[in-house]
């Protein structure tokens, strides 16, 4: 188990829009920056916008990011989006 200090960079909580941007340091090697936005489209639909980036903060982190493939990165994001969708349907 690991513990991280997560910094909230932006926060908005309005009836038709929710937004949160966070950042944290992962394993002393990666700076992670993520944002999540929910926008009300109509009474039965909500748009979910997820954005983020990882930045290597030392040699090991930068090397690992360069060795990773775009295909595997896209797979991780797609799996996350699939989990979000599954949870929203419960």
Class by alpha and beta content = alpha+beta
* Helix fraction bin: 25-40%
Based on CA atoms alone, the radius of gyration comes out at 16 Å
The largest sheet has its strands arranged as 1-2-3-4
Largest sheet: 4 strands, antiparallel
What count of helical segments does DSSP give?
Answer: 2
Global mean pLDDT: 90
Rough outline: globular
* Strand residue content: over 45%
How would you briefly describe this protein structure?
The protein has 2 helices and 4 strands, in the order ββββαα. By secondary structure, the chain is α+β, with helices and mostly antiparallel strands.
Molecular structure report:
By secondary structure, the protein is of the alpha+beta class. Helices cover 31% and strands 48% of the residues. It has two helices and four strands. It has helices at residues 59-67, 70-88, and strands spanning 7-14, 17-26, 30-42, 45-56. The chain has a four-stranded antiparallel β-sheet with strand order 1-2-3-4. The longest helix is centred in the C-terminal third of the chain and has 19 residues, at 70-88. The two termini are 28 Å apart. The mean pLDDT is 90.
Give the SSE layout.
Elements lengths: L6 E8 L2 E10 L3 E13 L2 E12 L2 H9 L2 H19 L2
Antiparallel strand pairs: 1-2, 2-3, 3-4
Task: Label this structure with key terms.
4-stranded antiparallel β-sheet, alpha+beta, 4 strands, 90 residues
């Amino acid at each position: 188990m690991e513990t991280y200090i997560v910094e909230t960079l932006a926060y908005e909580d309005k009836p038709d829009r929710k937004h949160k941007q966070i950042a944290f340091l992962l394993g002393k090697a990666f700076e992670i920056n993520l944002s999540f936005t929910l926008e009300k489209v109509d009474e039965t639909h909500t748009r979910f916008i997820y954005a983020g980036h990882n930045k290597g903060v030392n040699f090991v982190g930068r090397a690992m990011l360069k060795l990773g493939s775009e295909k595997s990165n896209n797979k991780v994001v797609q799996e996350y989006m699939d989990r979000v969708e599954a949870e929203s349907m419960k």
